[in-house]
Structures
1.
Amino acid sequence: MQDDRLSYEGTSLDPLTGPAASEMPWLRSYHDVVEAFRSKAFIQGGGGRRDSAPITGYGVLALAGRDHFERRRIEAVLFRKEMLRWFENGVLAPALAAALAGATGAQVDLLPFLRDVFCDLTCAFWGIDGVDTPAARQRFLAVVDEMTPGGAVEWERGNHREIVASSLAAQRRFAAAYIQPARQRREGLIEAHAAGRLDEAELPRDLLTVMLRNKQHFDRWDSEVYVREITLFAPGDTIMRFVPHMVAEIYGWVSGHPEDAARLEDVGFLRRCATESLRLHPASPYFIRRAVEDTTLPSGRSFRAGDYVVLDVTTASLDPSVYGADADRFNPHRVPLHKVKQVGLAFGEGPHTCIGAVMSVGEITARRPGPDDPLGLVPYTLRELFRAGVTPVGDGAQLNAGNARGEFTTFPVRFGAARPVAEAG
C-alpha cells in the first residue's frame, strides 16, 4: 500500500516534477553552506518530488524533524565502537586479505576488485543470509548493481524515469530473493528472544534486525520501507566509489613527496589522506534544502518560506578563505585557516551529518584516537592496498560522464609483492 501523505523531496538534475537544481539559487561559500545545514529554517527536501523516492523513499535522508531524529537514534546502535570493530576486523579484514593474496603481481580494475571485497560487509550490515559461494556472491552483486543506481538518480544525467524503473524492478527481485527469507528468519529469532528462548547475544547484528525490533517506528510508513532503507545504506558501494580517488591522490602525493612514503603504514596519515581526498571529491556533490520560514543568512542572502536552495558542498569545500589559496589541491598536511573539519562538507554538517562517517574514516576529531577506536573501513583498506603494493596503471582510469558525482568507471591498478606487515594500528 502506497502512502501518498508524504511529499518526497530531494536533489535532482532532471526532476520528474518541480524545479530543476539548475533553476534554484546555489550557495557556494563555506560559511553559507554550513549555516544552511545547521539552520532550523531549512529542511531536507528539493525539487518537487524526489526522483529516487521509489527506491529510497521514507529513508533517513528523506526525513526531517522528529522522524529523522528518531530514525538516527534507532540505527545508531549499528555504529557503536564494538559494531564498527566487528565490521572492520571480523568482516572486512578476512575478505580483503583473501582478495589481496590472490592478486599478488596482478593487474586489476580496482572498482570490481573492491566490489567483490565489500560484498561480505554489505551482507553483514544489511542482514542478508546465504551469500556464501562464488556463484551466490555474483548473483547477489548483479542484482545490487542494478538496484543501487536509482538510489542516487538525482545526480544522474540520463533519463531518470528509465533509471528508476530499472532499479525498481531489480529492487523487487532483491526483496523477494533476499529480504523476504532474511526477514522471516529474523522475525522467528526475535520472537524466540521475546519468549526467553534466545539470549540477546544470539540475535543477528544488522540493519534488518534493528528495523524489525523497532517495527512501531518503521510500520508508520508502507511495507516497503524496509527494503528502501536497506538500499539507502550501501557501505561497500559508497566506499568502492571514492577509494580510487584516494589511491590516485596518495600515489601522486608520495611521488612528489617521497619523505611521506614510509607513512603509508600510518593509519593516522592515511586517515588525513582520506579526508583530504573526500574534501576534493565528495560522494554527494550537492544537497538541496527548502526554507520553512523567511530567513536571511549572515552573508545577507535572503530566502522566503518555500524557496529551494542548492548547497554546493564541492565548491564550499574548496573555499580558499577557509582552506587556503591552494584549496583545490591535495595536501594531507593541510591546516585550515579556521577551526573547521579537514574533510570539508563531504559528510554534511549539523543534525544531518552522515551517520556513517566514523564507520568510513574513523575518528576525525582533534583528539588522538584511542586503542579501542576502530581504524575506519577506508583507512584500513588503504593501508592494506598500499601494503600490497597498489600502483595506478597508465592512463586507463576513466571518469563517469553520466553523472555529477565525479566517480570513476574504471581504475586499473597493479599489485606488487606484499610488504611485511607492521603493527596493526
Note: The first helix runs from residue 30 to 38.
2.
Amino acid sequence: MTQHTKLMFAAVTIATLFLGACEPAATTTGPLASPSPKTASSQDGIPVVPVVPVPARPKDLAAVPEVVQAPPVKAEVVKTQPVDIVICLDASGSMSGLIGAAKQKLWAIVNELATANPRPKLRVGLYQYGGSEARENGYVVCKCELTDDLDAVYDKLFEIGTRGGTEYVARVISKALSDQEWSEEKNALKLIIVAGNEAATQDPTIKLEEICKKTIAKGIMVNTIYCGPVAAGQRTGWAAAATWADGQYAAIDHNNGTVAIQTPHDKEIAQLGSELNKTYIAFGRDRKKSANQSKQDMNAASVGAPAAAERAVAKSGKLYNNSSWDLVDAQKNNKDFDLAKVPEKDLPETMRAMTPKEREAYVATQAANRVTLQTKIQTLNKKRQEHIQAEMKKNKTDDSKSFDANLRKQIRSQAEKKGFEFEQ
C-alpha cells in the first residue's frame, strides 16, 4: 500500500468513527431512511466510503408507500390555452336519459380534451333548466359556476333530478352569458352547450335569436343538442340557435343512444384510481375537498364499471387538477408555490412534526407514487380502448346518436379551429 493510499484509508477510518458516534446505531426503513452503514472496506487498494443513514421519518408515517430518493417536485412549464364550457341540461320529467348519459360520459369528454395540445386550461360550469325549481328565474338553476374543480362539477351533476316541464332555452343561455366570469384571453375556446327536447323558442321574455347573437358577439359559441329526430329540432329552433351563435347542432337518442362497453380492464383501472387517492396530501382551507374525491369515485361506480374506469383515466390525465387543496398538485402546477411558506397549521398532522427537508421528501415521495400509478392506468387504458374499438367493430355498434359522441365531436372540431391539435 502506497503512502498516499495509507493516508486516504486513515482519513476514511476517522470519518467513519466520527459519523458512527453522531448517528444512532439503529435505523428505520422507509422513504426518508437509508440502509444501515456498512463497514469500510477496500477494493484494489482503494477504500470504500460507508453509506451514512439519514434521519428516520416519524413513526406515524410508517404506512406511507416507500419511494427512495424521489426527485423534488418542480412546477411544470407547459403551454396552456383556456377552454371554458358551460353545460346546460334540460331537467324536465322526460330527460332522465339525458342526465344519465351526462353522468355516464362526463369523464370520457374530459379524457378527449386531455389529448389536446396546447394543454387545455379547462373550466366547466353546469346549469339545469326546465325543472320545478327557481320559478322566479324561469326555472333556471346554476348548479356550478365555471371551475377547474371537476369533482365539484360531477358532484353537482348527481344532484340534478328530473321533474317539471317548463323549458326556456333562451333563458338559460342568457343566464350563462351574464352570470359567468368567462375567460378574457383572445385565444380562449368558450362554449355554451344546451341539450333538451322541447321547442327552443318558447321563452316569453327573451328572444332566442337576440340572445344567441349577443352571445357570439362576446366570443362565446352556442352548441345545441336536440333529444329527438333531426327534423324536429330543425323545426323548433334548435338548429337555428346554433347557427345564430356560430355553433353546431346535433340530434341524439337520449334514451337509447349511449354506448358503454365494459372491458376486462375496467376493474383494475378503477382500483388503481382509488389507490391514487392515497397520494394526495390535503392542506389549507380547502382540505375538506379531499373527501369529495372518494365520493365522486363512488358516484361514477354507481352508473357502471365503464364510467368508473373513465374517471380513473381522467384522474391519471393532464386535466385533473386539485391545486387548491393538494400539496403535490400545488407544487406541480404553481411556479410561485413554496412549501416552506405553508403555515404549520395548514399542513396535515403527519407533516407538522417534520423538518422542512423531511416535508419536501414526503411530498416528493407521494408525487413519485402518483406518477407510477398514473402510468399504469394509462397503459391499461390503451388496452381498454383497443377492446372497446374491437367490440364496436364486431357488433357494428353505432354511437352516432349518443350524447357524448356528438358533444365530443362538436368540441373537438371547434377546438381545432382555435389552434388545438389532438393526439388521436
Note: The CA atoms of residues 302 and 308 lie 8 Å apart.
3.
Amino acid sequence: MKHFGLKKQKRTSIFFRRAIFTILIIAIYLLGRHILLPGYNGNTGFSQITEQNPLAYLYSLAGVDVSQISMFSLGLGPWITTMIVWQVINLNKSWNIQSWSLKKADFVQKILTLIFSVLQGIAVMYTARSENGRFLLLVDDWIYNMAVLATVVAGSFVIIWLAGLNVSKGVGGQTIIIISGILLQFANQLVVLIGQSVLSKEGLAFLVGAAISFLLLGYIAVVCERAEIRLPLNRVMLSSRYYGKSYLPIKFLPSGGMPIMYASSVIMLLQLVLDWFGHGFTKNFGSLFDFTKPLSLAFYLLAIYLLAILFAYINLEPEETAKRLQRQGEYLDYIQPGKATLKVLKHYISLQSNVGALYLIVFIGLPYFINFFLPLPNLLLTIPSTLIILVSMLLPLHEEIRILRIGTYYHKELEFKGEWR
C-alpha cells in the first residue's frame, strides 16, 4: 500500500522525529554541564558564588554558566555575542559585508567566536575560581589555567556544533540550548531560595507573594511580546477580499531580549578587565556593576535603553524593508513606494523602539527599585530579565512546533484518500 507515493511504514510524524533528536541534544548538553574539570572544587555551591559576585545571575542570561567550571560552562555565550556583534557590524555598509560569500562570512564569524570564547573562558575562570581548585598533578598554575581554558573553549565549539545539528534535524534551533541553560540555572537558584524560605512563616508568605508576582510579570511579558502595530499592506495580485488581512507588523518590543544578553556579555568582560587592573582599580570602579546603588542602576538601565533602540533598527531594517516592498510592488495605503515609505517606516520604528525601550527599563528596573526599600534575593532581581528572554524565545518555539504538527492534523484524512487497493 502507498500513501501519495510513500510506503506506509515511512509515514512517521516529522515533529516526533525532530523532538526525539532535540531531546538527545539537550541530554548531551546537560551531561556535559555536570562533567567538572579535573582539580575543580565542586563543593563550592552556586549560592556561594553569587554571594561573592551577584552578577552571576546575569551571566546565565548571556548563555554562560559561572556556577561551576565544566566542559560546557561557556554554552552558546560566545556564539550569541558573535551574532550580536555581527549584526552591529552589518550596519556599516562601507564594509560591504552583504557581498561576502557564505564561506568567507562563516570563517570570520568562527574567528570572532574563538576570540569571544577565549575572553569569556578567562572570565568564567576568574569568577568561579576557588583556592582549593588545582590539578591533582603537581604542576604550575599556568598549566592548569591553560588546560582549563582550552577545554572550555573546545566545549563551546562542541555546543555550537550540536546547536547546528539541531537546526537541521531538531526543534527550536540554537535557542533550545539557550532556553535549557537558563531554565536549569533558574531551577537551581529557585531550589536554594525555597530551601532558605520554607523554614519560617514569613518565608512562606514571601514565596507566595513572589509566585504571584512571577505569574503577573510573565503574563505582562507575553502580552507585550505579542503586541504589534499592523500597517495595512497592498500586495500585487492579491484579491480585494483579503484587504485588511495583509499587513506589515512592527512589534511593540522590536529588540526582544537582545539588549539584556548583550549587556550581560559586556559586563562580564568589563569585570574581567577590572580584575586584571588589580584590587585598587576594582575598589574604585567595581561599584559601577553594583546595581543596588542608584547611580550604577541608572547607568545600566541607560545602556539597556540605548541598546534596545539600536537592536530595534537592526531587527527591523527600515531601509531594506522599503527596498523589498518597492521591488515586490507592495505599498502602504496612500504612501508612495521608495523614500516616502522609508520615512513612514522610520517614524513607526522610532516610535515603537522608544516605547519598547521605556517598557524594557521599567520592567527590568522594577525589582531593583523595590530593593532600595525592601531587600530582595538576587534571584528575584533578575526575574524580569529572565522572563523577557525566555518569552522572546519560547513563543517562536511554540509557533515552530505548531507548524511542524500541522501535517498530523490531516493524517487520517490523507491516509483514507491516499491508499488504494
Note: The chain is about 65% helix and 5% strand.
